[in-house]
Design brief:
CATH topology: Jelly Rolls
Mean pLDDT: 95
Shape: globular
Number of helices: 0
Strand content: over 45%
Largest sheet: 6 strands, antiparallel
Number of strands: 11
Order of helices and strands: EEEEEEEEEEE
Length: about 120
């Protein structure tokens, strides 16, 4: 059973002010799961996008965010989960003065992301 230490993972900037650590992916020999940890700085935005091939579950680990899901804007906080069906636009805005973080979970290693307005 692999143990993945976050300090050993690849981190990139998914969006300005939003570092993403890829915890589980095909790089760790996962067959059908992707998991990323994202920190969302105060004032930062995860731009609206869709995943045409898969749904995504986003678990708010810490803080408060405004979630965009379809045509709705919803306040979410620590412990809440947002489920975006395949093809439904979603994103987040951190309107608070503190960092927030979330886990992005996909039931595939083939994650396709398409930006939308």
């Amino acid at each position: 059973m692999p143990i993945i230490n976050r300090s050993d993972t690849t981190t990139d900037e998914a969006y300005p002010g939003v570092p993403r650590s890829q915890l589980i992916s095909a790089d760790q020999d996962a067959q059908s799961l992707s998991l990323a940890h994202l920190d969302v700085a105060a004032g930062a935005t995860i731009g609206t996008h869709i995943h045409p091939n898969t749904e995504e579950a986003m678990v708010i680990v810490d803080g408060e965010l405004e979630a965009v899901l379809g045509d709705e804007k919803i306040a979410v906080q620590t412990g809440d989960t947002v489920l975006a069906p395949a093809g439904v636009k979603h994103g987040f805005v951190n309107r608070s003065s503190a960092k927030a973080s979330l886990l992005a979970i996909f039931p595939t290693t083939d994650v396709q992301r398409v930006p939308v307005e």
